[in-house]
Amino acid sequence: MGTVYADIELINADDAALARKHIIGEDEIKRINVKMLVDSGAYMMAINESIQEQMNFPFKERRKAVMADGRIMEYDTVGPIEIKFKNRTAVCNAFVLPGDAEPLLGVIPMEEMDVIILPLRQELIVNPEHPYYAQLKMK
Q1: Residue 1 has pLDDT above 60, yes or no
Q2: Which of 111, 93, 96 is nearest to 40 (CA)?
Q3: Residues 6+ away with beta carbon under 8 Å from 76
Q4: What is the per-residue pLDDT for 101?
Q5: Strands 45-48 and 88-97, sheet pairing
Q6: CB 7 within 8 A of CB 123
Q7: Measured between alpha carbons, how far is residue 80 from residues 6, 58, 105 in Å?
Q8: pLDDT digits over 53-92, tens only?
Q9: What is the pLDDT of residues 95-130, one digit of tens each?
Q10: Is 107 helix (H, G, I), strand (E, B) or coil?
Q11: Do the beta carbons of residue 56 and residue 12 sit within 8 Å?
C-alpha cells in the first residue's frame, strides 16, 4: 500500500466546551488544519511539538509507545482533541512527537469516524456503506 494523507481539522475540545458554555466566543476556539499521514499500523493519533505549541492541548500523562522499528519511546499525551474529516468527527488523545515530526492519524480516531483507506487511490474516504453518519460497532 502506498502512502495516504488526509486533510484533518484539529480543534481544542476544551475551548469548544468553554464556547458552548458562553465563557469564550466561537472565534476564540483554537483550531488548525493539518495534512496527516493515515497510519493503519498506529493505534493513537500523534501530533508534533509545533502543533502542540499552537493548540495548547491539555497534558494528560506520559505514555510509552512501541515504534515501527521496535524501540520503546515515552511521549507526552494530550487531549481531548476534536478531529474533523469531511462529515465525520471524533474525540481522542494524541502523542506529542518531537519537533516537526510527521503527524499521524491512527486507527482509534479512524474507527470512531467510520472511515476507510482506499489503497489504489491512496485516499481516506467516508465509509460508503454509511455515507451520511458514522456507524460504530458496540460488540
Answers
A1: no
A2: 111
A3: 52, 59, 60, 61, 62, 95, 96
A4: 95
A5: parallel
A6: no
A7: 20, 7, 15
A8: 999 999 999 999 998 899 999 999 999 999 999 999 999 9
A9: 999 999 999 999 999 999 999 999 889 999 999 999
A10: helix
A11: yes
Cα separation, 70 vs 55, in Å, equals 30
Helix (H) or strand (E) holding 110: helix 107-113
Q: Which residue has the cell 467510520?
A: 114
Cα(90)–Cα(114) distance, integer angstroms: 10
Residue 1 C-alpha cell reads as 500500500
Name the residue type at position 27.
D
**For 5-126, which CATH superfamily applies?**
Acid Proteases (2.40.70.10)
Residue spans of the domains in the chain: they are 5-126
Q: What is the pTM of this model?
A: 0.92
- Please tell me the distance from the alpha carbon of residue 64 to that of residue 3, in angstroms, as a whole number: 25
